[in-house]
């Protein structure tokens, strides 16, 4: 399913076929979300929602990496990172919220331990 997720993420982002970083983030998003599915539910059971959620999750992570390219300052003590801006964080957060919303019926409830 990683290739399907990558194709969708590429289409949504306009990234090129050679974007290996995005491909790896798609594989990571697939694993992350598969681990959060309700017991007995597979990615295949909710394939359309799963692929879209994984693509949005990968794009959020990809945008986070792009935003780091514009970092103007970084320090290790007390960890200070400057750059990227609030708008960039909102876009990443919105992508993650959309991913969560589309996959919500299939995700295990964090509070119930299911």
How would you describe what is shown here?
The chain has 114 residues and is mainly alpha-helical. Helix content is 61%, strand content 5%. It has one domain (2-106). The protein contains four helices and two strands, in the order H-H-H-E-E-H. Strands 1-2 form a two-stranded antiparallel sheet. A hairpin with a 4-residue loop joins strand 1 and strand 2 (80-82). The radius of gyration is 15 Å and the shape is globular.
Short overview:
This protein is mostly helical and 114 residues long.
* Sheet of most strands: 2 strands, antiparallel
By helix and strand content, what is the structural category?
A: mainly alpha
Q: What integer is the average pLDDT? A: 80
Secondary structure: number of strands: 2
Which ranges are low-confidence, i.e. pLDDT below 50, for 5 or more consecutive residues? 67-72
Helix count from the secondary structure assignment: 4
From the spread of the alpha carbons, the general shape counts as globular
- The tally of structural domains comes to 1
Amount of beta strand: 5-15%
Largest beta sheet: strand ordering: 1-2
- Strand-and-helix sequence, N→C? HHHEEH
Described by its quaternary structure, the protein is single chain
Distance between the termini: 24 Å
Q: What share of the residues lie within helices? A: 55-70%
Integer-rounded radius of gyration: 15 Å
């Amino acid at each position: 399913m990683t290739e399907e997720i990558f194709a969708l993420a590429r289409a949504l982002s306009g990234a090129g076929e050679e974007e290996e970083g995005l491909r790896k983030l798609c594989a990571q998003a697939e694993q992350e979300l598969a681990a959060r599915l309700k017991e007995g539910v597979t990615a295949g059971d909710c394939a359309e929602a799963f692929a879209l959620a994984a693509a949005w999750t990968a794009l959020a992570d990809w945008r986070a990496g792009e935003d780091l390219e514009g970092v103007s300052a970084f320090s290790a003590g007390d960890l200070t990172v400057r750059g990227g801006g609030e708008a960039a964080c909102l876009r990443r957060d919105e992508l993650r919220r959309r991913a969560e919303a589309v996959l919500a019926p299939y995700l295990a409830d964090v509070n119930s331990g299911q």
